Write a sequence for this structure.
């Protein structure tokens, strides 16, 4: 019994150390969620304004042509940007976004389009390389705190492939941050651009008129790359916030599991110790009775 008791006590100490680590990681992730949310909120007005500007140009200037607004005839290839994390210990965060990416690629293949993978994050890179999937380009090292230049580098590569007609569409798969408790893996098409209608488009009353200088086509040529950059940057920021939230949830669950395991092991150790004490008492009583019988 002594050896078993020592083994259990060693396990308790090991689990206690693990609990301290997971608890610390949970607190770090919780503090980073707030910062990631602040960055996400700060970037949102820029994305909204550039989207509004493109919508105004296309609606006020009549027929405006731009390659990134037009659906190509008989598209044969599609770029798929997958945004994952550089680190693990984030629960099902990466598994969900990779599953959504696989579903999107399956849909594209069923439509006769060849997916071309572009991956952000070490976890996604490792996933596809382990499965011998071709990755056209990859980026890593900034998933937890992306900067605008990171989004620009990704956008430049994707736009260049679109202009060269290596791909006919650009899609992205990322994790949308709903709340600290809810994050959703999301797939959407970025190019050709789909501009959502405004809520006030059907309303009556006067509307603003615009005079364009330079011509609308030239403005669009300048704005469309910025629009794609802004969308990718927003997706990276939402993915970063989702990663921190998922890691906090995972570490919270790990801490709770460690507490439950410590209680179970402590109970088992107490039972073994109690059995040892009972055995010792019985041995003492037995020896005392033997001595008494011997004296008689």
């Amino acid at each position: 019994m002594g050896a078993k008791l020592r083994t259990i006590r060693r396990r308790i100490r090991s689990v206690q150390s693990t609990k301290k680590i997971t608890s610390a990681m949970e607190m770090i992730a919780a503090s980073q969620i707030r910062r990631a949310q602040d960055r996400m909120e700060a970037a949102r007005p820029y994305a909204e304004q550039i989207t509004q500007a493109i919508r105004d140009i296309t609606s006020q200037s009549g027929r405006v042509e731009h390659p990134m607004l037009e659906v190509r005839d008989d598209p044969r290839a599609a770029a798929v940007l997958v945004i994952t994390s550089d680190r693990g210990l984030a629960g099902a965060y990466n598994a969900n976004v990779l599953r959504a990416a696989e579903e999107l690629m399956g849909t594209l293949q069923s439509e006769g389009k060849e997916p071309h993978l572009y991956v952000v994050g070490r976890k996604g890179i490792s996933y596809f390389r382990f499965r011998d999937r071709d990755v056209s380009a990859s980026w890593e090292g900034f998933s937890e705190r992306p900067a605008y230049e990171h989004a620009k580098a990704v956008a430049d590569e994707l736009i260049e492939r679109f202009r060269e007609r290596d791909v006919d569409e650009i899609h992205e798969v990322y994790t949308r941050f709903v709340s600290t408790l809810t994050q959703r893996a999301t797939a959407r098409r970025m190019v050709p651009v789909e501009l959502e209608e405004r809520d006030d488009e059907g309303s009556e009353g006067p509307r603003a008129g615009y005079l364009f200088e330079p011509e609308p086509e030239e403005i669009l040529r300048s704005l469309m790359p910025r629009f794609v950059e802004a969308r990718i940057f927003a997706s990276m920021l939402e993915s970063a916030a989702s990663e921190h939230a998922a890691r906090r949830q995972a570490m919270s669950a790990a801490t709770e599991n460690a507490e439950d395991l410590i209680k179970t092991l402590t109970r088992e150790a107490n039972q073994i110790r109690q059995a040892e004490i009972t055995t010792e008492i019985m041995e003492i009583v037995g020896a005392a009775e033997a001595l008494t019988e011997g004296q008689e």
Observations:
- The longest helix spans residues 216-295.
- The chain is about 60% helix and 10% strand.
- The first strand starts at residue 77 and ends at 83.
